[in-house]
Every structure is written in C-alpha cells, then in structure tokens.
Amino acid sequence: MHIRSGRSVIRRRGLAAAVAAASAAITPPVLAGGPLPAPVVSWSGFYAGVHGGWGWGKTEFRDPNNSPANNPFFAYFNGPLAGGQLGYNWQQGNYVLGVEVDGSWSFTRGNTSTSAMITSSTNNGVAYTGLATATGRVGYASGQWLAYAKGGAAYARMELSSKFTPELTNYNRELFGAVGGVGLEVAFLRNVSAKVEYNAFYLPTETLHWVSPNTTSEIKHFVQLVKAGINVRFNGDGGPPALVPQHIETALNSDFRRQTSCPPHP
User: Fold this and answer.
1) Which of 83, 178, 165 shows the shortest CA–CA distance to 136?
2) pLDDT tens digit string along 2-47?
3) Is 189 helix (H, G, I), strand (E, B) or coil?
4) Could you give the CA distance from residue 131 to residue 226 in angstroms, rounded to a whole number?
5) Which residues, including other chains, have CB under 8 Å from residue 239's CB and lie 6 or more apart?
6) On the CB side of 34, how many CA atoms lie within 13 Å of its CA?
C-alpha cells in the first residue's frame, strides 16, 4: 500500500512539473513580462488586389492662332477612380523587388478652364476615362511595413470636347507615356495588406488638328493620382509560431517519463 501511494505521489509531482513547464512555454510574452515578438511577413510571391482613389491635373493648349493673352490656356480636371492590380515580389532580406500591372476606370473630368473654347464640367470638356500602368517596384521592408518606389509605362484614354463650333466636337485620344510614384504598404493579416501610393503620369506632348477652325494645337498633359488599396498575397507565410515547439515538447515528455519511472523511496 505504501509503495502504491509513493508512486502516485511521484506521478502527481511529475505531472505538475510538466504542466508548469508547458504553461511557461506557451505563456504569451506580453503576459510573461517579455517583449511581444514582431510578426514575420514574407512579401515574396504573387498578389492581387483592388484600389480606389482620386485623380487631378491640367491640360495645356498652345495654338498659333490664339492671342498672346490666351496662349497657352488650360483645362483643369479631377475626379474619382477605381480598379485593380496584379503583381509579383521577390524578397531578399529587407529588400523587395517586384513587377506590377494595374488598371483603373477613371471619372476625372474637366471642371474649369481659362478659355471659353473648352467646355465646362457639365459637358466633360477634358476627361480621362481609363488609366493603366506596367511598372517595376523596388522597396525596403521592415516588419509589417514596406516602403517602395515604382516606375514604368503608362496608358491613358482621354476624351476632349470643344466649343469651336455650335455643336460639341469630340476627340478621343489614346496616350502612351511613363509613370513614376512612391507608396507605403502594411500587412495587417496573415496574407492581406493595405497600401497608399502616389503616381505622376508623364504623357508626351501631342498635336491635335481641330476640324473647325482649321488649326493645330500643341497639347501637354499633367496627370496625378493618389490611390489606396488592399492586396492579398498568395504565397502565405509562416503564420504564428507553434504554441509548444517540438524540442520543448520532446524534453517535457522525456522528463515526465524519467520522473514517473523512478522507484519510490522506502
């Protein structure tokens, strides 16, 4: 009877020690008084997302038939946009390289003008109905944060309507140029991040021959965008660490077996 009771006591002591050790191993650092470890985020892999934002800018017109007081004249525009993006990142240490394509439905339209020859916002004197970019990105990652710069090719679909004639004359333009920008992205879920970025479009100077009157204008475009969006990464990441690492679990099991197998003291 004494032997059985002694073994029972040792088993209870061993079990208590194992439970205490396991509890210490799985206690969150913030409860144990230690610093909370930073989550591990991997930016490598494919991602896709959506964005919304605001565009603004001006279009400059120069024409040899205009008076010096009205040459150049400007049409100003602004408005919302929405679209999506798709990309891929390579991460080496803290450095991230990537490529991205994005496209936006744009509702940026002319709202004022220094010349009566360009219609008011009611008639969409200057409008950008579509915007797209294909860019390379270079960034620096720190914990959950990624700061980056981007640059590459840009596309814009522009609509222009004039009041040179009693009836509106519409011109549709397909413009190709370059884009540059900067952004900041933060991962707030396992593979979901939020971003905000600024883009500046550099569209080449073009000439436009008006149907009536018979004249040719030189046109320069200045377009800027601010976008905020959400990305979903398809690589996944390590996720949260295991509550009880394998080597701790093995040590606890070994210690428990050793203590429970000891012969009782007489």
Assistant:
1) 178
2) 445 555 555 555 555 555 555 555 555 444 455 544 456 889 999 9
3) coil
4) 13
5) 190
6) 10
- Which residue from 53, 46, 29, 17 is spatially nearest to 196, judged by alpha carbons? 53
- Intra-chain end-to-end CA distance of the chain, in Å: 12
Token duo for residue 206: 């073009």
Nearest-angstrom CA–CA distance, 52 and 237: 27
Give pTM, 2 decimals.
0.68
pLDDT (tens digit per residue) in 50-82: 999 999 988 887 777 666 666 777 778 899 999
Count of residues for the chain? Answer: 266
Least confident of 125-134, 194-203, 224-233: 125-134
Q: Which residues contact 79 (CB under 8 A, 6 or more apart)?
A: 54, 55, 56, 106, 107, 108, 109
3-state secondary structure of 85: strand
Q: Pairing relation of β-strands 126-142 and 145-162?
A: antiparallel
Torsion sign across C-alpha atoms 91, 95, 98, 103: positive
